[in-house]
Amino acid sequence: MTAIIIDGAAAAQALYAGLAARVQALKARGVTPGLATVLVGDDPASRVYVRNKVRACESLGMHSEHRALPATVTTAELLAEIAALNARADIHGMIVQLPLPPQVEPAALLQAIAPDKDVDGFHWRNLGALAAGTPQLLPCTPAGVMHLLDREGVAIEGQRAVVIGRSQQVGKPTALLLISRGATVTVCHSKTTDLAAITHEADILVAAAGRPRLVTAAMVKPGATVIDVGINRVDGKLVGDVDFASVREVAGRITPVPGGVGPMTVAMLIANTVTAAERHAGAAST
Question: Residue 286: which pLDDT band, with cuts at 50, 70 and 90?
């Protein structure tokens, strides 16, 4: 068996096509969806991520603003920047690119973003709404994972799903989304014993541990759908948390790295921004 490769880039382009029509509908009402990105310092990977987000906005005719701040910036200065963006009616979504320098308090910044502009989905109100079963703006990578599963026609209800990783940004929200769709979910992490025995039971396996090539063929149930969220640089190359070459010979479907979940993360960020603009336009017209 050789797995079907899930093409995240193609899925993202299909999503953008639908978003383009929604953007045009908003612009016809006098609303141009606006996304502000805040980047601290000069991390090369972060620059690439921000550039991709700005380009995606521009390709759809959205408004995009980028704030580049020095690595010496203080938490107070960043909070002032966020407050100014919160107050602007033409900015519907805002992100502070992670990671941040050690003198900055990430939690304080992420919670300072207005929940209705939190297009990363990291604000406690948005995470709490997800946990309560009343989702508002979803974290982008978990939303992208679910979009790929749906686009591929992968059955979720009644299936065994295993998520490796318990981060607030990816692991936990992904588990909650799978639970909401009727999957039986196990969350594994660095303290899990006999990881392979658990992952081998999974019909859907999501690897989000941040450990290169952690998941091997022996850990995967034949025919399983394997979603690799990991992005690791090894010997100058990007690799995932899954040993792609061996696992693709066992799995039924698999996402590559790069070209799998990554493009969907950016696409879901743009989708959240369009959704936020639509909600703002609806509130403004009532």
Answer: very low
φ and ψ at residue 34, rounded to 5 degrees = -125, 130
Cβ neighbours of 108 (radius 10 Å): 13
Q: Which residues pair with 40 in a beta bridge?
A: 69
Q: Give pLDDT, residue 43.
A: 83
In order, the DSSP letters of the chain are --PEE--HHHHHHHHHHHHHHHHHHHHHTT---EEEEEEES--HHHHHHHHHHHHHHHHTT-EEEEEEE-TT--HHHHHHHHHHHHT-TT--EEEEPSP--TTS-HHHHHHHS-GGGBTT--SHHHHHHHHTT--SSPPHHHHHHHHHHHHTT---TT-EEEEE---TTTHHHHHHHHHHTT-EEEEE-TT-SSHHHHHTT-SEEEE-SS-TT-B-GGGS-TT-EEEE---EEETTEEE-SB-HHHHTTT-SEE--SSSSHHHHHHHHHHHHHHHHHHHHHHHHT-
Sheet holding 93-96, edge to edge: 63-69, 34-40, 93-96
User: Active-site residue numbers?
Assistant: 53, 97, 120
Crossing angle (nearest 10°) for helices 171-180 and 124-131: 30
Residue 5 is which amino acid?
Answer: I
Instruction: List pLDDT tens digits, range 184-236.
Output: 999 999 999 999 999 999 999 999 999 999 999 999 999 999 999 999 999 98
